[in-house]
Automatic annotation (TrEMBL):
<keyword id="KW-0648">Protein biosynthesis</keyword>
<dbReference type="GO" id="GO:0006449">
    <property type="term" value="P:regulation of translational termination"/>
</dbReference>
<dbReference type="InterPro" id="IPR038467">
    <property type="entry name" value="RF3_dom_3_sf"/>
</dbReference>
<keyword id="KW-0342">GTP-binding</keyword>
<keyword id="KW-0963">Cytoplasm</keyword>
<dbReference type="InterPro" id="IPR005225">
    <property type="entry name" value="Small_GTP-bd"/>
</dbReference>
<feature type="binding site">
    <location>
        <begin position="25"/>
        <end position="32"/>
    </location>
    <ligand>
        <name>GTP</name>
    </ligand>
</feature>
<dbReference type="InterPro" id="IPR004548">
    <property type="entry name" value="PrfC"/>
</dbReference>
<protein>
    <recommendedName>
        <fullName>Peptide chain release factor 3</fullName>
    </recommendedName>
</protein>
<dbReference type="GO" id="GO:0003924">
    <property type="term" value="F:GTPase activity"/>
</dbReference>
<dbReference type="InterPro" id="IPR000795">
    <property type="entry name" value="T_Tr_GTP-bd_dom"/>
</dbReference>
<dbReference type="GO" id="GO:0005525">
    <property type="term" value="F:GTP binding"/>
</dbReference>
<dbReference type="InterPro" id="IPR009000">
    <property type="entry name" value="Transl_B-barrel_sf"/>
</dbReference>
<feature type="binding site">
    <location>
        <begin position="97"/>
        <end position="101"/>
    </location>
    <ligand>
        <name>GTP</name>
    </ligand>
</feature>
<keyword id="KW-0547">Nucleotide-binding</keyword>
<dbReference type="GO" id="GO:0005829">
    <property type="term" value="C:cytosol"/>
</dbReference>
<dbReference type="InterPro" id="IPR027417">
    <property type="entry name" value="P-loop_NTPase"/>
</dbReference>
Length: 539
């Protein structure tokens, strides 16, 4: 967290009731299913779709690309807003569902710059997996508070203490159980809510039903025996005694600084444990936080509106070739029709048709507050990393762009359509879906991505959205680095290495390499030139 002035006033009620968070996990841990259930409990949808279900139930609301529906994976981060009632307060949840597949990690990294907390979903059978670990590292870099949900407890899963140990060891974070599972796999009947001393029972028959909750007075309450078989009850009492001896209590300040995570257990597909997790987000999740920016930080309670673009999605509505910039509001109270300054170009924009998202449905946003995420349809003026303000020249910092790990050449199936191809590639580059490099020598483009699956997604989207079949082919280059340094040194370097030089879609100079040896040679021969694997998305 950033240094917070201790004498800050309390946030205005409208801002304080907002909770903006992302869901992170390894593919297949049940993240999209959990998102669906959040919408269900928020009253936003009547029936939750499951990623692997049949027929009508299959249409999950948070996956809108054709490929996402076909493969049952999420490839682009989607944002959703909905209300959730907790203890008489109506909270506004802004939830960003991120792609779990490692091939789309850059989209996820950037998304995490726009949220105040993360919900980490872990599969009860598999524990902490590689992608969870990578995403967790990004949360760690940003000191994001984390709430953990251990999913699929109704299937055969590992010992609970073992799962907790693994989280503590692999992720170096303290864990405190907020609930405790009773039984496992077929014998799983529900959870004991440690925070409120309640028994939560799962109904396997109706997957869209909120679990039955029974208030009890601690573990010695005779009512427990009426609902929990004797063997399971004995194990529950033993386990909880160990938990109280060995594990730290839930301390909100440690959670806020990202060193302690509360863990809930449940089964998202059976709607079990989800409501308790949502109560936890409302109670312990952070309010909208201070944003780091240049030349000063932005406080959410400032009256003037400011926000930044963390994602651009092209062709959400293929009929209209539209591009929507996802903007996280950092401060103020935004109303439709406002004129905002686009800091990079110093031009004023009238924001007349901003939208709020409920998965694939969107509606006009009449107003929004700090912490909210709105979509601004535009024709290419807004790029990732742009800041919008009411006039002040301030730029939100810390939105990264990473060097791609795979490079390929690309050609249009029809050579006459190379101009169309250039337009499509630039669109995807601005969206952040790929890096597009134009080599200084020769024609054609080199496309860079983080994972192989992205090439398939790009080819499928270029064909679907532009009617342009393309083929990707091997490139002689294996990686790319941005070139920085003194103007004269950079000019001298580019002149001598023309066959390796390209420009990205922002016009920045890029050095395309074949081997690590190329990079070492530059370090040795050009001490005044720096090659970097990331660049900040600011102009």
């Amino acid at each position: 967290m950033l240094d917070t002035p201790s004498n800050r006033p309390a946030l205005p009620a409208e801002i304080a009731r907002r909770r903006t968070f992302a869901i992170i996990s390894h593919p297949d841990a049940g993240k999209t299913t959990l998102t669906e259930k959040f919408l269900l409990f928020g009253g936003a949808i009547q029936m939750a779709g499951q990623v692997r279900a049949k027929g009508e139930a299959r249409r999950t609301r948070s996956d809108f690309m054709a490929m996402e529906k076909d493969r049952g994976i999420s490839v682009s981060a989607s944002a959703m807003s909905f209300d959730f009632m907790n203890k008489g307060t109506n909270f506004r949840f802004n939830l960003v569902d991120t792609p779990g597949h490692s091939d789309f990690s850059e989209d996820t990294y950037r998304t995490l710059t726009a949220v105040d907390a993360a919900v980490m979903v872990i599969d009860g059978a598999k524990g902490v997996e590689s992608q969870t670990q990578k995403l967790f590292e990004v949360c760690r870099m940003r000191d994001l508070p984390i709430l953990t949900f251990c999913n699929k407890m109704d299937r055969e899963s590992r010992d609970v203490f073992e799962i907790i140990d693994e989280i503590q060891e692999n992720l170096a974070i303290d864990v405190t159980p907020a609930s405790w599972p009773i039984g496992v796999g077929r014998d799983f009947i529900g959870c004991y809510d440690i925070l409120r001393d309640r028994l939560e029972l799962m109904d396997r028959a109706d997957r869209n039903k909120v679990a039955e909750s029974i208030a009890i007075e601690g573990l010695d309450d005779p009512k427990l025996a009426e609902h929990v078989p004797a063997a399971l009850l004995e194990k529950l009492r033993e386990d909880l005694e160990m938990v109280r001896e060995l594990m730290p209590p839930l301390d909100a300040s440690l959670m806020a600084e990202g060193s302690l995570t509360p863990i809930w257990f449940g089964s998202a597909i059976n709607s079990f444990g989800v409501k308790e997790l949502m109560d936890g987000i409302a109670t312990y999740g952070p309010e909208p936080q201070i944003q780091s920016a240049e030349p000063r930080q932005i406080l959410p309670e400032e009256p003037k509106v400011s926000g930044f673009v963390f994602k651009v999605q092209a062709n959400m509505d293929p009929k209209h070739r539209d591009r929507v910039a996802f903007v996280r509001l950092a401060s103020g109270h935004f109303t439709r029709g406002m004129k905002l300054t686009h800091v990079r170009s110093k031009k004023t924009m009238s924001v007349t048709n901003p939208v709020m998202f409920l998965a694939a449905d969107r509606e006009l946003a009449e107003e929004a507050w700090a912490g909210d995420i709105i979509g601004i349809p535009n024709h290419g003026q807004l790029r990732i990393g742009d800041t919008l303000t009411e006039g002040e020249a301030i730029r939100v910092s810390g939105i990264p762009s990473f060097a791609p790990e795979l490079l390929q050449g690309v050609r249009a199936g029809d050579p006459m359509k190379s101009k169309h191809l250039e337009k499509a590639l630039m669109q995807f580059a601005e969206e952040g879906a790929a890096k597009v490099f134009k080599p200084a020598i020769g024609s054609g483009f080199v496309v860079g991505v983080v994972g192989q699956l992205q090439f398939e997604v790009l080819a499928s989207r270029i064909e679907l959205e532009y009617g342009l079949p393309v083929r990707f082919e091997q490139s002689q280059f294996t990686s790319a680095r941005w070139v920085n340094g003194d103007r004269q040194a950079v000019d001298k370097f580019t002149e001598a290495n023309k066959q390796h030089i390209a420009h990205d879609h922002d016009g920045d100079i890029v050095y395309l390499t074949r081997l690590q040896w190329d990079i070492d040679r530059v370090d040795r021969d050009y001490p005044d030139v720096r090659l970097t694997a990331t660049k900040e998305m600011m102009v």
